Amino acid sequence: MPLTALRSVAKPQNGVGAFILQCKRLDFHYCDWAGSSRGMNAFLKSHLEAFARANPQIEVTVSPRPGRHPVLRGSYVNGKEKSICVRNMEPNQILEKATLLRNASGEKLKRVTRPVKSLNESVRGIWDPFHGQKYQV
Amino acid sequence: MPRLPISEQALRLALTRPSTFAQSNYVCRTCIRQYHPTPVLRAELPFWKRLQHSIFGSPEQKVATEKREEAHQKHIQELADKGGTEMQPYTDNEGRKWQIAAVVDPSINKQYVQAQRWDGLQWIGTKEWVALNNDGKEAYVGFNPRRKLDLTNAQWNRLLHHVAVEVLTLAQAGRDVNAVHLERPLNVEEWMRSARVQIKETNGVIELQFPTEDTQELIVNAVPQSLAEEIMIAAKQAEEAAEAAAEAEKAAAAVEEAARADAEAKGIPYEPAEAPLEKVEEEAEAEAEAEAEEEVEAPFVDRRSAKEISAAEKLYMRQIRDAVRRSASPVNNEWLRTSLAAPAVKLAILKRVTQLTGHRLPDPVMTSATSMSDLYLAFKIKPQPKKLADERRMHNLNLDVPNITVHPVRQTPIHKDREVGRWKVIEQELINKGLPITGSRYQHAKTTSPIF
C-alpha cells in the first residue's frame, strides 16, 4: 500500500488571501534650477497628486536636490532601495518609471528561464525505492 | 697605444726623466700649460698681468676712478660754497617733487659736526622709520568704494535719475562730463533739486526741463570744473582764511597797542594777556611749514590710516544712502526712455554710479545698454527665482493627500535619522567621543560641531 503524502500547512503567499505592496516609500528628488528637472517639476505639479491618491499605501516624499539630476528612489519592504534617474524625461515617462518602482518587489532583477514557478509539492510524491512495484532481480 | 693629446706628447718629450710621469695617469694643468707647444691663450696680455689688473685695477680703471673722484669732490666743494647741507629740491620727468639730501664731506664742510653717538640719528628700517616713511600703500583709496551700497529699486531709480540729470546738464552746458566724478561733498539739496528736473527725448534730441531758471546753473556750478579748479578753490579758501587771520591779528595788535597806551597813561605796568608775538609767529611758521609739507605730499600720499579711511568710507556711504533715501522720486518715468547714444555720456553715468554705489556693470551689459531703462534694469534687484516647494499647490498637497510630504530643503541622512529618532543618540555618542558631528575637522571645514 503506497504511503499517503504528508499534509503540509498552507504557506503564506503574498497575493493569496492578502496582498502587501512591496514598495513602501517613493522619494521624488528635483532641482529648481536645472533644465533636466523640467519634466520632473511638471510631473510634481500635475501628476503627483493623482499618483499618490491611487497608491495610498506608499509614502511619497518630495525634496529638492540642488544642482543634481532628478531621481526617483523606491524603498522596499525587504530593506532594499531602487533609484532611477529621470533627467530630461517628460512627465508621462516619469509616471511610467514611478509605476515601475511601485510594482517592483525590491529584489534584484534576475533572468527568468522557467516562467512557471510553484511552491506546491509534486503530486506524485517523493520517489522511494521501497514503494510501488517491486522489481524482482 | 692610446692616442695622447699634443700637450702631453710635448710634455713627455721635454721631460728629462719621463719615467715617473709616464707611469702616472694624471698630469696637472700647470704642467700641461708650461710645456704646451702653442701659446696657452692668444690674449694681448699675459695671464699674470690680467690677474694683476683684476685684483688691483687696470690703468684705465684707475684714471676713470680718479676722474670720478675729482668730479665728486668738485661737486661737494660747489655745494659747500653754496652753503649747503640743506635738502636739494628735485623735480623728475613726471613732475613729482623730491627732496634729496645734500652730500656732505666733513673735510670740506667745516661747519658740519659729525655725530659721536647713535642717539638722535635716524635708523633706517626700524618700526619708527617705517611709520614715519609710510608711503600710503596700505592706505590706498581707489575710485570705487570698497563696500557696495544696497539700494531698493525705487532708490536705484532716484540715483540713476540724479546722475543722469547731472551728466546731461553738464553736457548741455558744454562742460566736460567727466567732471562729474570729481570729489565733492554730498548735498541733499542737490539731490532734491535734480529730482524735479524732467528729461525728455524728442526725435533723438534730449531735452531737460528745469523747474526754475537758476536750477541749471546751480547744478552746473555744484560740479567743479576740473581737478585743477578743485585745488584752486581749496587754495583760494586757504588764502581767504589766511587773510581773515591776518586781519584778526592786526585787530588784536591794535587792541593790544591801545591797552598798552592806556596802561602807560595810567602808570600801571602793562602785562600782555595773550601769548607774546614771537610765540605766535613761531606757531604760525610751524603751521605754514606743516601746510607746505602737506602741499608737497598730498597729491601722492594719503597719510590716513586704514582705519580712518574705512571710517571715512562708511560715513560717505551713509551720506549717499541718506541722500538717496531723502531725495524725492522723479516726476515721471519718462526719463527711462532716454537713449544713451553718446558713449561719453553713458560712460560718465556708469562711472558716477560705480563711484557712488560700488556697483559695476559687466562690460557686455554696458555695451548693449542703449537707453536709461537698460541701465535701470541691469542695476535693479532681480526677483529671486521661484521655488517649487514654495508654490501654494505644493503646500496644500499634504492637506489633500496625506501620504505626500513636501520638504522645502534638501534631505540629508541626518534628517532620516532624526525622523526615526536615533539622531540624538548618534549625536550624543559623537560628542562623547570628541568627534565632529557634521563635516570634518580640517581647517575651514563646514562644520557645526563643537571642537573640544
From TrEMBL, chain A:
Gene Ontology BP terms: mitochondrial translation
Which Gene Ontology molecular function entries are recorded, alphabetically?
structural constituent of ribosome
The GO cellular component terms are: mitochondrial large ribosomal subunit
Which species does the entry assign this protein to? Cladosporium halotolerans
Q: Does the keyword Mitochondrion apply?
A: yes
Annotated family: Belongs to the mitochondrion-specific ribosomal protein mL43 family.
Q: In its keyword annotation, does this UniProt entry include NAD?
A: no
Residue ranges of domain Ribosomal protein/NADH dehydrogenase in the record: 32-105
Tell me where it resides. Answer: Mitochondrion
Q: Under what name is this protein listed?
A: Large ribosomal subunit protein mL43
> Which keywords describe this protein according to UniProt?
Mitochondrion, Ribonucleoprotein, Ribosomal protein
UniProtKB/TrEMBL annotation, chain B:
- TM segments? none
Q: What is its main location?
A: mitochondrion
Q: Where is this region: Disordered?
A: 263-299
Where is it located? Answer: Mitochondrion
Keywords from the UniProt entry: Mitochondrion, Ribonucleoprotein, Ribosomal protein
Q: Which domain of life is it from?
A: Eukaryota
- Stretches with biased composition (Acidic residues): 280-297
Gene Ontology cellular-component terms for this entry are: mitochondrion; ribonucleoprotein complex; ribosome
Family of the protein in this entry: Belongs to the mitochondrion-specific ribosomal protein mL50 family.
The name this protein carries in UniProt is Large ribosomal subunit protein mL50
Q: Which organism is it from?
A: Cladosporium halotolerans
